[in-house]
Amino acid sequence: MSDRSRYDLIVAGVARPAADGAMVAVREPATGQVLAEVARAGAPDVDDALGAAAAAFDAGVWADEPATARGRVLARVAGLLREHAEDLARLEARNAGKPIGDARWEVGAAADTFEYYAGAADKFFGEVVPVADPGLDVVLREPVGPCALIVPWNFPLLIASWKVAPALVCGNPVVLKPASLTPLTALRLGELLVDAGVPAPCVSVLPGPGSVVGDALVADPRVAKVSFTGETATGAAILQTAAPNITRVSLELGGKSACVVFADADWRRAAAETPLAVFGNAGQDCCARSRILVERPVHDAFVEAFTARTRALRVDDPLDERTEVGPLISDAQRRVSLDYLELGAQEGARLVCGGRVPERAGSFLEPAVLVDVDNRMRVAQEEIFGPVACVIPFDGEEEAVRLANDVPYGLSGSIWTSDLGRAIRVSRAIRTGVLSVNSNRSVRTETPFGGFKRSGLGRELGMHALAHYTEVKNVFFCSGSRPAR
Ligand code: NAD
Question: Across the strands, what pairs with 203?
Fold first, then answer.
């Protein structure tokens, strides 16, 4: 299946070419070679997908199924993802350039996501409110309507599953818009959704340019809800496009997350574990700990250990089992990192390792560590979205919190300390949506994920995500007129 060389769109559950017959070549970042030819959706395909989704929603197809039945279908999706896990992982590794071990983890996590929401199907419900009026007041949770789910290229299948599973389990039809560079696993997911029993009109997958397909989806009044993951600037444009229709929007955007290492921490473990928290997925991770704040007494020793581990990272072919870091998604994305490295040098930062382009095909870049970084430099303020780490020294808790918060973003972060009181104080003071103490993990299926400030609006994962895919309706049943006082 991973050897398929041609992919159609999925429109209302059916594979078919784009209405205008357009095709686009999808490349393998590790080689630059064409991996597959993929149909490129346009406005008429969006119209067909939304026409089917809206008609199905109005007719109560899927939305009127018992929640338990919808949950059972999602459990079947999880089963199919596991059945096809190795094929999907290889496809993702080749299309997104990610190490095969990471791709396997992501496919497993996508299956976990469907399993989690399968179980949540009949455990997310309304309330009965004790009102003063005589009668019964109930709060209902109803599906919101057709959902446009727009995803980026860095975790194509995983982020799609974070949106598709909660949207579907609440009874909504979905139209999934993968990134143009990485549509393959999203199209496979669309097929598996239909195979598992999601009604055909409720499933469309439309690869195509964001400026055409994404924009047409967001602007369409038939779309009740947009869930978007991508750049902050794109998120801002989406909010504007959605405004005239008051379309519900949730956004998972960029980050410039801090890893704060106090001198009292097990800083050796932090130095060993943090390189993959910055350079994993070649740094193309919204949660990348791209600013590493280190308390001055351990700064130099930390930098030495951190750069030693960074130099030892195996940067290689994504399909090699030993690879820890693959190529960037494209030469253009690598250019962004190289430009930031030049900018960092001009700003006075010092490159202590990496930053070289290896002599081989593909958009590889050696993981780069910048030291002598001041938090006001652009390399410390802007999301680079590549394998570039900035190490910044600090003195004391107050400065650590000030620096951690002094960026426009607020997605994720880590605090390394052995002092429980400090862990509590600092985790309360840092303004991000997700934090871990003595760990760099940000994402768990069961817990809410999303950002403060310009990192986004709303939360994915956990039970919190379900609120975004439902409307709240209050119904009061009067049991008679109020007795006269
Ligand atoms: P991007 O904003 O360029 O594109 C994301 C998606 O939006 C793609 O499918 C694209 O085609 C589509 N799109 C582009 N313009 C659009 C428009 N005008 N209307 C509607 N859709 C449009 O982002 P990217 O380069 O694919 O992804 C990288 C960015 O994503 C980084 O900033 C990263 O931090 C962010 N990201 C955030 C999270 C998170 O959960 N917070 C997770 C992963 C990635």
Answer: 174
pTM over 0.85: yes
Please calculate the CA angle 284-335-99 and round it to the nearest 5 degrees.
35
pLDDT band at 163 (very low <50, low <70, confident <90, very high): very high
Q: How far is CA 300 from CA 297, 312, 345, 371, in A?
A: 8, 19, 20, 10
- pLDDT-based confidence at residue 5 (cuts at 50, 70, 90): very high
Q: What is the mean pLDDT of residues 455-476?
A: 98
Q: What DSSP line would sit under 49-89, residue for residue?
A: HHHHHHHHHHTTTTTTS-HHHHHHHHHHHHHHHHHTHHHHH
Average pLDDT of the residues of the chain: 97
Q: What is the spatial distance between Cα 443 and Cα 262, in angstroms, rounded to a whole number?
A: 23
Question: How many angstroms separate the alpha carbon of residue 384 from the centre of ligand 1?
Answer: 14
Phi-psi region of 450 (alpha: psi -120 to 50; beta: other; left: phi over 0): left
Q: Whose CA is nearest to atom 13 of ligand 1?
A: 210
Query: How far is ligand 1, taken at its centre, from the CA of residue 252, in Å?
Result: 9
pLDDT higher than threshold 60 for residue 2: no
> Is 237's C-beta closer than 6 angstroms to any atom of ligand 1?
yes
Atom of ligand 1 nearest to the CA of 251: 41
Query: To test ligand 1's pocket by mutation, which of 150, 228, 409 has the most ligand atoms within 8 angstroms of CB?
Result: 150
pLDDT tens column, 110-135: 999 999 999 999 999 999 999 999 99
What is the CA(222)–ligand 1 centre distance, in A? 22
Ligand 1, atom nearest to 180 Cα: 11
Number of H helices, E strands in the chain: 15, 23
Residue 480: pLDDT band by 50, 70, 90 thresholds? Answer: confident
- Digit-coded pLDDT (tens) for 246-261: 999 999 999 999 999 9
Residue 485 clears pLDDT 90, i.e. is over it: no
Distance 230 CA to ligand 1 centre (A): 2
d(CA 421, CA 168): 42
Cβ of residue 256 lying under 6 Å from some atom of ligand 1: no
- Judge whether 158 and 189 are in contact, CB under 8 Å: no
Minimum CA distance residue for ligand 1 atom 32: 231
CB-based contact 203:212 (threshold 8 Å) = no
Q: Residue 393 C-alpha to ligand 1 middle, in angstroms?
A: 32
User: Does 383 contact ligand 1 (Cβ within 6 A)?
Assistant: yes
Q: For a pocket test of ligand 1, which of 205, 286, 334 has the largest count of ligand atoms closer than 8 A to its C-beta?
A: 286
Q: Is the pLDDT of residue 301 over 80?
A: yes
User: Which residues are identified as catalytic?
Assistant: 252, 286
Q: In what order do the strands lie in the sheet with 34-39?
A: 6-7, 34-39, 23-27
Q: Quick check: 136 pLDDT over 50?
A: yes
